[in-house]
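Teaching note: in complex prediction, the entire set of molecules is handled at once rather than each chain in isolation. The prompt given to students was simply: 'Predict the structure of this complex.' The entities are:
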Amino acid sequence: MSRFLVDRDGETHLRLAEGMELTKNQAVLAAVGLVALLIVPDITRFTPLSFTAIHRGILFGLAAVGLNLLLRHTELVSFGHAAFFGVGAYAAAVLASQFDVSSGLLMLLGSVLAATAISVLIGYFVAGYLDIYFALLTLAFNQVLYAFVLQSGYFNYSDGLNVRPDGLNPPALFGLQLSSTGYELVLYYLTVVVLVVSLLVMWKLVNSPFGRALDAIGQNRTRARFVGIPVEKYVWVAFVISGIYGGLAGGLFALLQLHVSPEPTLYAFVSGEILFMAILGGFGTLVGPVIGGVVLVYLLVQAPFYIEYYNALTGLMLLAVVLFLPEGILGSIPKIGTGLSRRRRDPGLLREDVATIGSSLRRGVSRAATTVRIIVFGVN
Amino acid sequence: MTTEPLAGTESNGIDRRTLLKTVGGSALAVALAGCTELLEGEQESAADADVPDEPIESGLQTFTEGAPSVLGIQAEYGAETAVRRINENGGIAGREMNLDVVEEGGAYLTNYQQFVDEGKDVTFGPISSSGHAEMVPEIEAQEVINVSTDGTVTTLYEEDFPDVTYSFRFQNHDVMEALAAVNQAVEVLGADSIDTYAGINPNYAFGQDEMNLFSQGIEKLTGAEQVYSGFPDLGTSDMSTHITEINGEAPDVVFSSCWGGDATLLLEQGHANDMFDNTELLVGTVLYGSANDMEEDLVDGPIYSGSRNFYWGEPSTDRWSPAADLVDEVQSEYGVVPTAHFMSGYGAVTAWATAAEKAVSLLGRWPEQEELAMVLENHGFFTPAGYHTMGSDHQGYSNAHFGELTWSDEHDAAALQDVNVFAAKNVSPPPGEISSDWIGSW
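The expected output is the structure of the full assembly:
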């Protein structure tokens, strides 16, 4: 075995770093995912797929990865993560429009710092709360920020701020003032690098003793406290890390959209969407929220062009995920894969599936007939 | 730049050649001016041009839902009517036109980007001022022409983006309706009788822009003093605190640029709280935009409204058949009376379509985006609202209308009476000048 290949229980693992190993299947999926990310600009050039929509989806997915640290490990549901996304986006916009900062990377640094500050503050107040109280508090802070920005002349009310230091051109990236197409490409590959690094950091984090402690806190706070874990402090730290991911994504979003306004970045619905992205992609997985982000944002961008009642889309998808894919897209792949391979080995199972569907339908029709009979003729 | 060239003229008094020359040289331009009946047997000048067969793909973003849709759907009807007329009259240089419509709310950039990704030849909209400001740099970067239906903040082309190539705006900019309101107030009350004024305007770029320009104008013309200025949120559910302030100050003139649901709410709560007993006059630049949502009791009182660059009853429909035909068509097709926002959609499409046809006849082929943008600059064209020009600053210039709000039993809808028509040169600075500097120079 080489330095990068190690044997674990008779299976070869790819070793990326100390404590970071992938099975063969995981390594293949990761490689496919990375290649897919890298060729997105080429794919969208030759297909009707929208490059900007995918890019936006990845950014919201990055915010959802941050939120998932709380959701998956501490089992805390945040309904206010747009606060950090919005703060990150606004920090970049304020630097560009109020302080004439022209470097995109400086703006991104400002986004991270602002999101860190605001998540430290909010985290201090919410870390001691659980369940519905935690959810409502995060929502409340989100709404306070939204209302503040909406009423503030400094943030230009509902009109928002441009992220164009000279009023027309995008910020410089790596010291280069790029053309529109060049800027989009460089920003996209910067996003890919940020995403990969963020995922690796999150992986390392959740597999560290700190991550295990968060799992323990999520499973039972009282027990965690009794074994000596400083629960509130750890939740606070997790909250801040989660907020930093949101701020980073928001900063990149500002650089992509080049205009920031309250509704697409700070509104409570955006918080709901970020949460849904994590669930849709599979909140039990590391990369699932990114998949969820891309899928949901893409659908939300495209739907108004094709569906009249597009506002119902998120609700319908949420219903479909809860009823049919409770583990999300990525989380369901192993189950679907196992099911398919079992049916390949034993085609008889397909007959059972058909029979199950048939009996379900029969039961449904029978229930409906009974209901109609009761409505028309009464209980007797 | 006044726009009553054909008013009162009997159409059969003009020969075809003169008419074609007048409206810009093409049958399409005549059709979009609402004078199709004069075209029987007319040959298309661009018929031999090298033009692709496939239809023109266009996209419109507008408010199709919620309170702002009272304006947005009118713009949609207007754009659809123009496209229908284009296709019924052989298309643009023989090319039919398709129009996709999408809700603009909060998605201005993504909508425009999506239209561009779909390969649209041209895009129209939005209604929102902030959305328009958001879009302009992106339009310049993507290099696909957008003719904005509204999004009329004056500073957009005067100060924020004074040098654009692909971004245009058809509807009059704010300074025109704010100064039309000033002139209307002076005409109704007299400059000497206006000592105080107040404002209730929506709290975003458009409302602040309009209030600022109205204040400058009325102070310059009358020396009046501002006694109150309130900015309720766009789409608010309550204006009573602002109305109470007005009642307390009892200003001579109240100015408002509230629109959509906010306009009807202002009138409802104004009546309920006796605001019209405490002021001499309410001048609202876009109150009439909500005409199809108004009940008869709302229009009672000293209320005057602007109607941007189009009011269907001015000139009177018995003297101006293009408007009469349009009102009939819109009422039978959609069951509403067309408002200024109808013309926003109609005129934006017409501006582009007539410029495209002009470009084809100049070049002998379909123009590139940049070429078409050049033709659109200083392009003049007709609609049933009269004559319009697209200035070198990419701002559309037309007449501004203002009149007293009343009720039309004939149309069972709100209407305007005693409509004043202000020529663009009297309510707007020439292209290249800043409105506030221009008002300051009076």
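Point out the following to students. The mean pLDDT of chain B is 89. The domain at 11-172+314-397 of chain B is CATH 3.40.50.2300 (Rossmann fold).
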